[in-house]
């Protein structure tokens, strides 16, 4: 399965890009036998990629004693959902209430506006993935669950569509929802604001919100949405030393 276009914004210099390209070729041509490929994925972890895993490791530890589900807004390839599933298997494999839910159009950005600035050169449809990718991702998450206890219970859900329609529908279907962790990675203003406004009644003291592009001049819309919905003066925005971009706040 291949996508015709990707829109990843890479800030590496030309030398780093060349090495990364070689690294990808090493991954694709790895001589490891099939039964040793997954146990040795660490071979291809760069410090940048490892730092993101470590970030979510620390974040997950912060929600263990907070009841509720994990939601991600802006799934794209689904790496964060998969990391969360693995961390649940590590820290609380028998917590049947720790459902993991991802929302995305899987068709790229939708709702670009002037509040998103001009630096990213993005447009509606940017950051799309391969057609039908949500089905592929669903199989990955299913296999993640099959390798952990309570595999007979489905504890993940992928919700495809426009967040303005899918999120109210989800809450109507699941009025029991409490959100312990929300990862906001829509990047742009409109869907981020919709998500923040919609989840407010489902947050509790101790809930954590993670943001991928706060204080980022390439994606100003995410910060504007947070400012309008929660107010910067009302929250403590924190970061961890291993990552430069990802930040979080705790509802207090």
TrEMBL record:
GO terms for molecular function: transferase activity. It comes from the Bacteria. InterPro entries: SAM-dependent_MTases_sf, TylF_MeTrfase. Keywords: Transferase. PANTHER family: MACROCIN O-METHYLTRANSFERASE (PTHR40036:SF1). This is Crotonobetainyl-CoA--carnitine CoA-transferase.
